[in-house]
Design goal:
The protein is an alpha/beta fold. It has 12 helices and 13 strands. The protein starts with 7 loop residues before the first strand and ends with a helix.
C-alpha cells in the first residue's frame, strides 16, 4: 500500500455496506468503534467512501521485534501441534533446462517448508522431477544415431562425455521433429521406451546418465538460490511400481469407466455422453493404448505419501494452470479411498510468469527463458 494509505488498508466496509443496506462510510465508523486495535495500531483513519487506513504503532512493532530477536532460531513463532507435512515443489524435467517458470515453485516451496518447520512441523521436501516417458525413448534413439560414444557406460550409467544439458535440449528438439515426421524413427523410439520399461540394461544406462547429467545442472541452480539441501528427488519413475495398484483400486471403487477406449474418472455425478461435454473433461488414468498418464503417477504418489511417508498434509506448489488437474486428482483419490480422510491434500497455486503479450514468458525465438540466464543477469545487475 502507499504510505498515504497507512501500513494496511481495509475495504471491508464497501461490501458490508451493500449487504446491510447502509453507506460504506457509516459501516466504517461502526467498524472503528468495535475494533480493538489500540495496543497495535494508531487510531484508524476513515478515507474516501469508507476505506480504513491502519498504521502500526512504532512501540508495538519494536516490542514484537525485540521478542523475535530474543529467539534467533524460531523468532518466537508460536508452536503448533506438530504435523508431518510433505511439500512438493520445483519439479523440473530431466534432460531439459530449468526455465523461468520453475523459479516461483522452487522459491515459494522452499519458503513454505522453512516456515512450516519454524512452526514446529516435521517437513518432508520432495522434488517430483519428470524422469519417465516417451521422450526418453526418442532421446536415447537419437543419441544412438548422432553420439553413440556418449552412451558408453561407467558404473551402470552412460557418461555422456562432452555433452551439456543444452546439448541434450537441442537433441531432444531434433528427436521430437524426427519422431513427428519419420515413422521408422518413431517405431524405434517406441521400442526404446518399451525396452526401458522392461529394464533393458543399455536403455537403463542411458536413462541413468541423462538423470545424473540433469541432476548436476539442477544442483547448480539450487545452490545459487540457496535451496535447502534436504530437497529429495522423487521422480515419476519412483512410483512406477504402484501404478497398476492404483488402477485396480479405482476400478474396484467403481469410479473408473471406459470412454473412447481410455480408462477415465468422470467428475462425480457425470457420465460419458452429451451432457458430459458441457462440464470439465474427465481425468484420464489409462490411455487407449494402455499407457499411463501424469494423473496415474500423481495418484500413486498420493498413496505413497499417505501410507509410507505418513503425511498428514501434502502441499503441491505449482502454477495456477494446474488447478483443475489437482482438483480432479484429489477428488479421484478421495472417491476411491486411496488416502485416509484425515490427510489434507492442498494445491498451492501461483500465477504464471507472463511476457508483455500476456502469454507465458518466452525469448524472441519462442523458447522459454532459461533460469540460469535469468540468475546470471540478476548477478550482473549492480
Amino acid at each position: 500500500t502507499k504510505a498515504a494509505f497507512g501500513d494496511y488498508q481495509c475495504n471491508a466496509a464497501m461490501s458490508l455496506g451493500k449487504r446491510v443496506g447502509k453507506p460504506p462510510r457509516d459501516v466504517a465508523v461502526r467498524l472503528v468503534a468495535a475494533a480493538q486495535l489500540a495496543d497495535v495500531c494508531e487510531a484508524p483513519e476513515i478515507a474516501g467512501p469508507g476505506f480504513l487506513n491502519l498504521r502500526v504503532r512504532e512501540d508495538a512493532l519494536a516490542s514484537r521485534l525485540a521478542v523475535a530477536l530474543a529467539d534467533p532460531v524460531r523468532l518466537a513463532l508460536p508452536l503448533k501441534r506438530a504435523q508431518r507435512i510433505v511439500v512438493d515443489y520445483s519439479s523440473p524435467n530431466i534432460a531439459k533446462e530449468m526455465h523461468v517458470g520453475h523459479l516461483r515453485s522452487t522459491v515459494i516451496g522452499d519458503a513454505l517448508a522453512r516456515l512450516l518447520e519454524l512452526q514446529g512441523h516435521l517437513v518432508v521436501r520432495l522434488n517430483h522431477v519428470g524422469d519417465w516417458g516417451t521422450q526418453f525413448g526418442m532421446l536415447i534413439t537419437y543419441l544412438r544415431e548422432v553420439a553413440p560414444a556418449a552412451l558408453e557406460t561407467t558404473g551402470g550409467a552412460a557418461r555422456l562425455d562432452g555433452l551439456g544439458i543444452s546439448d541434450l535440449v537441442s537433441f531432444y528438439k531434433q528427436a521430437k521433429k524426427r519422431f513427428d515426421e519419420d515413422e521408422v524413427f518413431q517405431s524405434a523410439s517406441r521400442a526404446a521406451v518399451v525396452a526401458l520399461q522392461a529394464g533393458d540394461p543399455a536403455c537403463l544406462a542411458a536413462w541413468r546418465g541423462l538423470c545424473e547429467k540433469s541432476r548436476a545442472e539442477f544442483g547448480l541452480i539450487y545452490q545459487t538460490l540457496g535451496v535447502d539441501e534436504r530437497l529429495t528427488e522423487r521422480g515419476e519413475s519412483f512410483y512406477n511400481g504402484g501404478l497398476e495398484e492404483v488402477v485396480r483400486r479405482l476400478d474396484e471403487a467403481g469410479v473408473l469407466v471406459t470412454s473412447e477406449g481410455a480408462r477415465v474418472v468422470f467428475p462425480e455425478g457425470a457420465q460419458p455422453g452429451a451432457d458430459a461435454q458441457a462440464g470439465p473433461p474427465p481425468l484420464i488414468v489409462v490411455k487407449s493404448d494402455g499407457g499411463y498418464m501424469y494423473s496415474t503417477t500423481d495418484l500413486a504418489a498420493i498413496v505413497h505419501r499417505a501410507t509410507e511417508e505418513k503425511a498428514e498434509r501434502v502441499l503441491y506448489v505449482t502454477d495456477a494452470g494446474q488447478s483443475l488437474h489437482f482438483a480432479q486428482v484429489f477428488a479421484a483419490a478421495r472417491r476411491a479411498h486411496l488416502v485416509p480422510d484425515g490427510v489434507s491434500l492442498e494445491h498451492v497455486p501461483f500465477g504464471l510468469v507472463l511476457g508483455e503479450d500476456g502469454k507465458k514468458f518466452k525469448t524472441r525465438s519462442g523458447d522459454t527463458v532459461r533460469l540460469s540466464d535469468l540468475l546470471a543477469e540478476a548477478r550482473r545487475i549492480p
